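Researcher: Let's run the pair from yesterday's discussion. Sequence first, then tokens, for each.
Model: Starting with the first of the pair.
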Amino acid sequence: MTFEVEGETFRCGCDCHRPFGPRVVVGGVSGSGKSTLARALATLLDAPCVELDAHFHGPGWTERSDEEFVASVTAATAGDRWVVDGNYSRVRDAWWSRATDFVWLDYPRHVATLRTVRRTARRLALREELWNGNRERLSNLLEPGHPIRWSWTQHPASRAKYEATTADPRWSHLHVVRLRSPKETAAWLNQVSASPAPPPA
């Protein structure tokens, strides 16, 4: 499907005429805008938005075991409609097996990393609460797994992993939408917004 935004033509690599949803996973490297898009899609589909980080990180940044994490997300995705926001590839089988669509935000490395820097600066300045009372701290910037560092260093590996995953016959039931820029995402979201929400499958 091709579409035009501000004089630029984009190809999203999907059949935008196909009914979208009702069970969607939004993935991509840190800073790609997964949460923002997931919330928008959840509103369009009249579905709950399941943010994986909120189920994984407990108070004080404690991490749930895989068993607790999967159980929590499985309960949150028990219905016929939902939008999952996040990656966690080691345990994703629990919800990918029931998903109907996968939206991959595959932005260039510099775009995703710059967006992560801006997000971190906003969170620090405004003391935003993230999940379960947690907030970013300046000391978090030094951690190897901080999203800014992760977005830059893991970008090639993340892209390769998603390319392999979306080509895996195991997930052939998924309708895959690969979006390569914020403008392309905005144009695609406008296309989806113009289509009626599908009935539960």
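Model: Moving on to the second of the pair.
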Amino acid sequence: MSCDPMQVMVSLKDRAGTLLDELMMTRESSLYAIEAAIKVNDVGAFVMTLPPTYNPAYLQRDNRVEIRYSMEGERAQLFGERYFLIRSVEWQQDTGGAIEVRGVCLNDLLTRRIIAAYSGSTFSKKSGAADDVMKALVRENCTAAAHDYNGAAAIRAFDNFAVQADTGLGAPIDKTYAHSRLLEKLAETASASALAGTFIAFDVVYVESTGVREFRTYAGKRGVDRRHPSGTNPVVLSAKRGNLGGIRDKMDYSNAFDFVYCGGQGEEDNRVIKTSPSPAPAWLTADARVERFIDARQSSDPLQVQTEADARLQEGRATRTVTANIIEAPGTRFGRDFGFGDVVTVESRGEQFDARVDAVKLSVKGGRYDISCALRAERTLDGWDSWTV
């Protein structure tokens, strides 16, 4: 999606947020380039190319890279409601030389903490709405309320970091979390909620007015409902309308499974074992049945083990996945007509369904920029027939 009137500016700041330099990327020479990508419930990343004479003092570990874009005199917007953190700098001596800077978005903070709790403790055993469970995990490992194996551990708190208030909008969750990377368990919990019928997104966003990084969750959608006909300023996309390309519509049974055995605590025949079978379609034979064993030894509660078995069975459902790229056209301009995480309407193969703007990539090189946006819609097969976004 190429939009020549847009301007893209990069601000480099130190770890405290003090401005070091500003680069108007759409006006710089080919020695300057940047590509940044963000994706729902994942860690975004960037790579930036600078001339070899650029001041290395500005490129320190975890210095901030803020990317803003504006269209035709409109107020500049912070890309993805976040800034990025420098994680590597490489001086390249070939082809005239260059500096390549790489980094990650604020969601990377969630990879820097583990769930430092013993199995069975109040800090590992969680139940409630999925979004509230996720916020509790973040509060207890990233804020002044943090604990670890030895008790209170405020030293684990990030500076200028907050957690959004509970909203109780996710699907019910009953799980034990212990000795795990925080981001992985947040993604796992969001996925479990989606499979149970309520999509949950999460992000660490930068609140510019206060300077706070805030962990937030979103129920149903990460952005705005732009579905036809009931959404806000509906957006309808199709190849026929000229605003959708690269369509891939895939039926996938390769990783499907139909029966789960789940093992909790205990040894041999004293181990807690629960099962979860899928609704058996008429065509399912003994040959077609695919089994999986799930290790949930962190759980002694049979109900928790059963919940884990049911949740993991959902992961084994065969799927139909539609992915596509949005093409700029009147009424489909990123940042004006739709944004990251919005839900839009797609027409494909004679069907109309909802899809999520799941990922966005912005790139600038030689003064020209491009924005590509990826859509995703997923439908389960073999007994489940509703589209989820």
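Researcher: Give me one sentence on the second I can quote.
Model: Residues 382-389 have pLDDT under 50 and may be disordered.
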